[in-house]
Specification:
- The protein is mainly alpha-helical.
- It has two domains: 107 residues; 192 residues, Helix Hairpins, CATH 1.10.287.950.
- The chain contains four helices and no strands.
- Helix 1 packs antiparallel against helix 2 and helix 3 packs antiparallel against helix 4.
- The protein is rod-shaped.
- The protein starts with a helix and ends in a 10-residue tail after the last helix.
C-alpha cells in the first residue's frame, strides 16, 4: 500500500514537469532550425527557400517560445490553483488508501473486517462495502448452516431411506408370502366349495331318500292299519266260526242223543220182532237197518264232535294268534309312526342342512372370489412395494449425491472467515 501511495505522489509531481519540458523542447528545436537556416543563408546556398524558410523558422521559434511562456504561465497558474486541490486530493487519496487497506483482508476471504464510514466521498463506498460484506456474511453463514442442515438431514434421510429399503424389502417378502398363502387358501376354498357342492348334493339326496322313506313308512303304517283291520275282521269271522262250531256241537249232541234213542228203539223193535216170531221177521229187518243207521249216525256224530273240537281248538288258537298279531301290528304301527316322525325330522334336518350347505357353498364361493381379488390386489401391492424399494434406492443415491454436494458447497465457503455468531 505504501508503494502505491508513493507512485501516485510521484506521478502527480512529474505530470507538470512533463508539460514544461515538452514546451521548452519545442522552442529549442525551433531555435536550432532557425540557426541552421541562417547558416545556410550565410553560405549563400538557399535560393528562395533560403529566404522564406528562415523567416518561417524564426516565426516557429517565436511561436515555440511563446508556447513555452504560455505553458509556463498555465503551469504556474495550475500550481497555484491546485494547492488546495492537492490537499483535497491528498485527503481523498489517504481515504482511498485506507479503504484499500481495510479491503485487503476482505479480498483474502476475511469477512470480519468492517470499512470505516467517514464524511468524505469514500463514506458511501465504505457503507456499500460494509453492506456487501454483511450480505456476504449472511450468505456464507446461511450456506454453512444450510450445508450443515442438509448434511444432517441427508444423513437422517439416508438412515430413514435405508430403513425404508429394508422395511420395503421385508414387506415385499411378507406380501409375497401372504400372496402365496392366499393363493393356497383360494385353492383350498375351491376344494371346499366343490366338497360343499357334493355335500349339498348328498344332502338333497338324503332329503329325497328321507322323503321316500317317510312315504314308505306312511305306506307301511297304512298297510299295517289295513292288516290290523283285516285281522280284526278275520278274528270276528273266526269267532263267528267258533260260535258256529259250538252250535254244530250242540246239534251233534242232539243228533247223538237221537241216534242213541234210535238205537234203543231199534233194539226194542228187534226184541219185539223176535217175540213175534215169523210175523215180525220183516220188522226185524227194518229194526236192524235202523240200528245200523243209528250206529253210523253215532259214529258220524263222534267224528263230527272230534272235528268240532278240533275246529274250536284251532279257532281259539287262531284267535289268540290274531290277538297277538293285532298287538304286534299295533306295536309295529306305533314303531312305524315313530320311524315316520324320525324320518320327518330327518327330512327337516336334511332340508335345513342342505340349505345351510348351499349357503356355505355360496359363501365359500364368494369368499374364494374375494380371496382371488385380494390375491390380485396383493400382487399389485407387491409390485408397488418392489417399485417403492427401487425408488427408495434411487432416493438414497440422490440423498448421497445431495450430501456430497452440500459438503462441496460447505468446502467452497470454508475459506471465508466469519465473526462469532454466524
Amino acid at each position: 500500500m505504501l508503494n502505491s501511495r508513493n507512485r501516485i505522489t510521484a506521478a502527480e509531481g512529474n505530470s507538470g514537469n512533463t508539460f514544461r519540458i515538452a514546451a521548452l523542447a519545442c522552442s529549442g528545436i525551433a531555435a536550432a532550425l532557425a540557426l541552421f537556416c541562417l547558416f545556410q543563408i550565410y553560405l549563400g546556398d538557399g535560393g528562395m527557400l533560403g529566404t522564406i524558410l528562415p523567416a518561417m523558422i524564426v516565426c516557429a521559434a517565436l511561436a515555440g517560445f511563446l508556447w513555452y511562456k504560455f505553458v509556463d504561465a498555465q503551469y504556474s497558474k495550475i500550481q497555484h490553483v491546485s494547492t488546495e486541490a492537492e490537499f483535497r486530493a491528498k485527503r481523498d487519496q489517504d481515504a482511498i488508501l485506507r479503504l484499500m487497506d481495510e479491503l485487503a483482508e476482505f479480498s483474502n476471504g476475511d469477512l470480519t473486517v468492517e470499512a470505516q464510514v467517514t464524511e468524505d466521498f469514500t463514506g458511501a463506498i465504505a457503507d456499500s462495502v460494509n453492506y456487501a460484506i454483511e450480505s456476504m456474511r449472511e450468505l456464507v453463514g446461511t450456506i454453512n448452516r444450510t450445508s450443515t442442515q442438509v448434511s444432517n438431514a441427508s444423513n437422517s434421510t439416508r438412515l430413514i431411506a435405508e430403513q425404508m429399503q429394508s422395511s420395503s424389502t421385508e414387506q415385499a417378502q411378507k406380501i409375497h408370502t401372504i400372496t402365496k398363502i392366499i393363493g393356497d387358501m383360494v385353492r383350498s376354498l375351491d376344494r371346499v366349495a366343490t366338497s360343499t357342492s357334493d355335500s349339498a348334493e348328498i344332502a338333497h339326496n338324503s332329503v329325497r331318500i328321507a322323503r321316500e322313506g317317510a312315504q314308505q313308512v306312511r305306506n307301511t303304517i297304512n298297510g299295517m292299519n289295513n292288516i290290523r283291520g283285516n285281522i280284526q275282521e278275520t278274528r270276528t269271522l273266526i269267532k263267528r266260526l267258533g260260535e258256529s262250531s259250538q252250535e254244530i256241537g250242540n246239534i251233534v249232541e242232539i243228533i247223538k242223543s237221537i241216534a242213541d234213542q234210535t238205537n234203543i228203539l231199534a233194539l226194542n223193535a228187534a226184541i219185539q220182532a223176535n217175540s213175534a216170531g215169523e210175523a215180525g221177521r220183516g220188522f226185524a229187518v227194518v229194526a236192524d237197518e235202523v240200528q245200523r243207521l243209528a250206529e253210523r249216525s253215532s259214529n258220524a256224530t263222534k267224528r263230527i264232535e272230534g272235528l268240532v273240537k278240533t275246529i274250536q281248538n284251532d279257532t281259539n288258537a287262531a284267535v289268540a294268534s290274531m290277538e297277538r298279531s293285532t298287538k304286534e301290528v299295533v306295536e309295529g304301527a306305533n314303531i312305524a309312526e315313530e320311524a315316520g316322525t324320525a324320518l320327518s325330522k330327518i327330512e327337516d334336518v336334511s332340508t335345513s342342512l342342505a340349505s345351510l350347505i348351499e349357503k356355505v357353498s355360496d359363501s365359500t364361493r364368494k369368499v374364494s372370489t374375494m380371496a382371488e381379488g385380494i390375491a390380485s390386489d396383493m400382487a399389485q401391492i407387491n409390485q408397488m412395494a418392489i417399485t417403492t424399494t427401487e425408488n427408495v434406492v434411487k432416493t438414497s443415491d440422490s440423498i448421497e449425491n445431495l450430501s456430497l454436494l452440500s459438503q462441496e458447497l460447505k468446502n467452497s465457503v470454508s475459506g471465508f472467515k466469519l465473526p462469532v455468531g454466524y
